[in-house]
Amino acid sequence: MTKEDLVNRIWEQLDLSKKESADIVDQILVNMKTVLREGEKLKIGGFGVFEVRERKPRMGRNPKTGEAAEIKSGQTIKFKPGKTLRNAVAEGK
Amino acid sequence: MTKSEFITELANSVDYLSLKEATIIVNTFFEAIADELISGSKVELRGFGSFKVKERQSRIGRNPKSGTKVSVPRKKVPYFKPGKELRLLIDQ
Prior knowledge:
The complex is a heterodimer.
Chain A: H1 3-13, H2 18-37, E1 42-44, E2 48-55, E3 58-61, E4 68-71, E5 74-81, H3 83-91
Antiparallel strand pairs in A: 1-2, 2-5, 3-4
Chain B: H1 3-13, H2 19-38, E1 43-45, E2 49-56, E3 59-62, E4 69-72, E5 75-82, H3 84-90
Antiparallel strand pairs in B: 1-2, 2-5, 3-4
Helix pairs in contact in B: 1-2
């Protein structure tokens, strides 16, 4: 599924043009990014929680050369699926 | 931020959307992604990231209370991989 399929799902639900539906999907993604960029958690009931987590520095390897390289600390996004979604995906229904 | 706050935000961001429409849209958005994952497919959102299902192998775990070994069966779990644009935005 791509963004276009998501746009179509929304377009089918409401009396909106394709352009408006596409703009709204983009706006949803922009708003999600804004929330996370501010370091705030985003909790979507039944779906899951998106949050910003600290990534600890660790040693990794360059997969091409095999050389050891430090992976720096930083911020990353963690998605924790909600119970409803986890169960539905596990059961496939 | 909760889902209802997120819905209010969306209604504020898009001037022609009522709160009721924003509710339907946000619910449809996440339901569509969930449906796709439940059917085992993935969802790719350019610049944001992708949602997919990962298969976890069965393993021997332990009951954290009693310490007895239990076999944890193989299972499918939803997974989100942030896209490059989102990763760079967050990691600053």
